[in-house]
Amino acid sequence: MKNRLDLRDHAPALRRLDRRLLLRRGLSLGSLSLLTGCNLQDGDRVDRVLWAMSRWNDRVQAALFSPHRLAPEYTRRDITDPFPFNAFYPLDDAPEVDASDYALEISGLVQDRTPWSLPRLRALPQVSQITRHICIEGWSAIGQWGGVPFRHFLQRIGADTRARYVGFRCADRYTSSLDMATALHPQTILALDHAGSPLPVAYGFPMKLRVPTKLGFKNPKHVMAITVTNDDPGGYWEDQGYNWFSGS
Ligand SMILES: Nc1nc2c(c(=O)[nH]1)N[C@H]1C(S)=C(S)[C@@H](COP(=O)(O)O)O[C@H]1N2
Ligand SMILES: [Mo]
């Protein structure tokens, strides 16, 4: 134990984590070193230890994620108006995607890689949901989104649903990714509408992923390309240390 990192150096942060684990999951920090499966060495930087914890947290969250547990749905009266805009740049810089030559790219572990035009996406079965979007920056808002159940879309393109991840690339070079269980969740939708009309530029025209079981940053807007893969695609915020699973 001598050359192990002394976790007591980070007591306040760890106490908070311990409390959260205990409250939310009935786990304790005592089990952490056993469960991480990584030896925390003396030379390890604190950020590496925290990354290791975050990856361990992903595994615990993925194990506890239920494909059947639904995010709460709300009524029209609950809708936040105006709905907030957020991106890693100001609204004026949001990408203007041309609807007429939009062609959603498909790659990876799928049978049919034919790109999708907007009329073809609109011809698929559509659903609508009123759910809460929660941003890691400390705000949340209730909105209405409409579009194609993503599970249906994945089946339609012959995706290998045993693959681990679905990755997204956006018109503004934003990227994100989902685990397959979340991609197949009944409330995950390939959204084309916001508040009953085609998505405005602010909220991701012409298409975004609406994932009410995930934090806002895992809801990519202006999606141009989708890939099904076993190699963790990461993402814009995921790669900067935001917890990858980020359930809400
Ligand atoms: N393409 C793209 N998608 C994105 C982002 C972005 O900067 N670019 N920001 C994410 C974050 S952090 C949030 S909170 C939501 C904001 O979505 P909204 O503008 O519809 O509220 O979009 C997510 N998806
Ligand atoms: Mo966010």
Verbal overview:
The protein has 248 residues and is an alpha+beta fold. It has two domains: 7-64, no CATH class; 76-240, Alpha-Beta Complex (Sulfite Oxidase, Chain A, domain 2). The chain contains six helices and nine strands. Strands 2, 3, 6, 7 and 8 form a five-stranded antiparallel β-sheet that branches. A four-stranded mixed β-sheet has the order 1-9-4-5. A hairpin with a 4-residue loop joins β4 and β5 (175-179). The longest helix is centred in the first third of the chain and has 19 residues, at 46-64. It is globular. The chain starts with 10 loop residues before the first helix and ends in a 19-residue tail after the last strand. The site of molybdenum atom has 6 residues, from loops.
Summarize the structure.
With 248 residues, the chain is an alpha+beta fold.
How are the SSEs placed, and which strands pair?
Layout: H1 11-25, H2 32-36, H3 46-64, E1 105-108, H4 118-122, E2 127-135, E3 139-149, H5 150-156, E4 165-170, E5 175-179, H6 180-183, E6 189-194, E7 197-198, E8 208-210, E9 223-229
Bound molecules: ligand MTE and molybdenum atom.
Protein name: Molybdopterin-binding protein
What is the helix fraction of residues, given as a range?
10-25%
Mean pLDDT: 87
Structural class: alpha+beta
User: What's the CATH superfamily of the largest domain, by name?
Assistant: Oxidoreductase, molybdopterin-binding domain
Instruction: Please report the distance between the alpha carbons of the first and last residues.
Output: 36 Å
What is the CATH C-level name of the largest domain?
A: Alpha Beta
Unreliable parts = none
Shape: globular
Task: Report the strand count.
Answer: 9
For the sheet with most strands, the description reads: 5 strands, antiparallel
- State the CATH topology of the largest domain: Sulfite Oxidase, Chain A, domain 2
